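Hi Y.,

Following your request, here is the sequence exactly as I used it, all 512 residues.
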Amino acid sequence: MSNQTAWLDKAVFYEIYPQSFCDTNADGIGDIPGIIGKLDYIRDLGCTALWLNPCFLSPFGDAGYDVEDYYMVAPRYGTNEDLANLFREAHKRDMHVLLDLVPGHTAVTHPWFRESMKAEKNAYTDRYIWTDSIWEVPQGMGCIRGISSRDGSCAVNFFSHQPSLNYGFYRPDPDCKWQQPMDGEGPMATRETLKDIMSFWLKMGCDGFRVDMAGSLIKQDEECKGTIALWQDIRQFLDREFPGAVMVSEWGEPDKSLVAGFHMDFLLHFGPSHYNDLFRCDEPYFSRRGRGSAREFVAAYRENYAKVGGKGLICIPSGNHDMDRLARRLDQEEMKIAFAFLLSMPGAPFIYYGDEIGMRYVENLVSVEGGYGRTGSRSPMQWNKGVNAGFSAAAKEKLYIPQDESGDRPDAESQSADPCSLRSEIKRLMALRQKHPALQNKGDITFVSDGYPLVYKRSYGGQSITVVIHPADEKAAVPDVGGSILYKLGAALRLEGGTLHMDGPAAVFIEK
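Below is the corresponding structure, written out as tokens. Let me know if you'd prefer a different format.
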């Protein structure tokens, strides 16, 4: 890691869904000036970096993950200058900003796609993945067809309005001439344009990118060898032109993404990570009922940790715009213990806006911008007890996504003033993490127990801290943990003769 990216060693990220964070012009939609106005709140919590969900021009069929212009901020959020000002204001506070980069597909309204639909060959004919015939569909992928004069079907990555950009095929089928190799003219033009987009925002002051679906660019690439090579090329470009540029991947396979040149990877909420065994299942591990299990999560984590040689750059988010809120399954006291876990694990923590106050999943919302079941996790931030919880001065019916209407909904102002609140507990945990290198992003981890309680040791530079996480409402004892208690939360506990005794749910950090 270069000196310019050393800030990642202690980074704690705060994810912002722009349309739902803070509205300054009373149109019912959050905006960039609203984010700027809340930077001090985020810094006070202890977060040192931001991840902004897509804020570029878009028809917003998928919350901005359907980009219409990679070089222009969506007017509803502000202007390019507003975004540049956000970078400057963040840097004044020793904070950093990652933009959400969507390299795999665009909106159907993107000018590139409109040009690619034309029957006559042009500079954008091969910018997307088109078959040679309207009757042929790309195997294993959805497609758009019958919408233009061009004879062919265009592959899509997810929704039918997200045509797949063409980075080539790792093993092109010789019988399908439309499957172009990675080094074909069209795929290489797409790759170079991606570099241009990254350059544009890095020159503007952006610190790097969280990359959407990073492992999916090269097609028919089961082992991701082609995709790894593509990102290694981009990393070489960045190291040459922008050595401080950070890349965090949505990949879920750190043994591949870190080799590809990414600084960090997420444990995803789908696939084999068992991450949601902890938070989002019928019996989550962090419920005080004590009926859950962390065993398969620990096994998967150990496997990934070994694959990357213990680099510890596997990020575990509190949640994100695609997941249920923590509060859908856990109450505020249970979430305190969950955050003791999240903020004592290796890799950079990512806190989804509002999770620090225990915002709830809003049930039964009509889908907004392709959110469907995810819409309930995207409701407006609750700042205070005023109109629209301080999110917006617009009339309630103008709010783009409805708010939690509960009379006891949590808010940031109240929790900031309450030393016993969830937010205050998270702030204490953040400060402790920043003080002790063993608890930070690069510290090593060794699991001691994967049941109730969960026990692991963090170590770095001669410091060793044992972390005991016990969500269950039952007594427990942990032997061989002598030392001094750095942090304690929860039920009555005592340390006697090197054995920690707990009478119920608790979290304890012990330094030897």
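Residues 471 and 505 are 5 Å apart (CA to CA).

Thanks again,
Q.
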